[in-house]
Design brief:
It is built from 15 helices and no strands. Helices cover 51% and strands 0% of the residues. The two termini are 30 Å apart. The longest helix is centred in the C-terminal third of the chain and has 22 residues, at 314-335. The protein has helices spanning 28-41, 47-50, 56-71, 77-90, 94-107, 110-117, 125-136, 155-175, 189-198, 200-203, 232-245, 252-263, 284-294, 301-307, 314-335. It has 357 residues and is an all-alpha fold. The relative contact order is 0.16.
Length: 357
Amino acid sequence: MTPAFLTAPFTTAPFRHTEPLPPRSATGRTAQVYRQLAADFGIENAATFVVLSSSPELMAAAWALMRESLLAGDGSRTGKELAAFGVSRANKCPFCVDAHTLLLHATGDHALAERLARGKAPEREIQARMVAWGEATRVPGSPDLTPLPFFVRHTAAYVGTALSFHFINRIVSALLTENLLPGNVQRFRTVRSLVGRSVAKTVRRRLVPGTSLALLDGGAGPGPAWAAGTAVGPAYAALRAAATAGSAPLTEADQNLVRDTVALWDGTHQPMIWDALPGRADRPGARLALLAALAPYRITDEDVAAWKKPPYTDHCLVGLVAYGAFAAVDRIERALPLPAAPPLHAPVTGAVAGRAE
């Protein structure tokens, strides 16, 4: 049975800067995403996707990439949760760090989840390498990116998981509070274990790949070479297309500023003020997009108010934040040292072994 605090009234959801409609009022594609989310993720009305619901194409694409990589993709769920944990820690997203700790409990790896919750590294070397690889994906050229700590034939699932959470971390940091559960009760070990166990059956179930693709707009393409032949590829392409569309309110000059600044980013966390960050009064849209890309946890009410004036709506704000978030994802993806097209039966890379990959 799911604990009551996971199905708390919608009004307690930790939204910032937007006011999503209650999931019960959803129709069409949005309602389909909610149904699939509940069935395959085991958590109804997850705030990480509700916050995108004013943009159904973004919501569906973000869900598809996570589902096809983390949930239905190749490789062990524990390994992918460790990679996602590392990504979230590198991005300073406590909401997502806590979420992946709970989901590690759901996989049955309770001791591992608690070591991470206490700030300790996994005892097993391959698991520690998986966390380190996830963290390193944020930094172009990091020595911890190679050798890959997973089978080459599982590249699409692991890379898709990492990139999915580089996007989700930024959406969460920009548009949600840090409270995963009311009162931050996930900080208690008994709560972590209880929540994990409540979704364990769903987490341990093997999903059929590709089911989410029916929710996507067609025409985005097959996706990058590292995801060739998998459902991760078109899901990634759809998210790129939907997020890129969020740049529409920006001028060409603002889009160029965002693109050029992110292209030079070295993975470090930005100071409170940096030279390339424009002021609220002069270029508020470009400021929001750049913050979403490089420091989403620093977006303030003042930043949003400076830009979000009629005719701009929640849909426009979510799209703009997604545009900035995916600009960072694109920078990260392009810098990853990956095989161009992983074969179906490639040799093992590194000291990968068993279910802990």
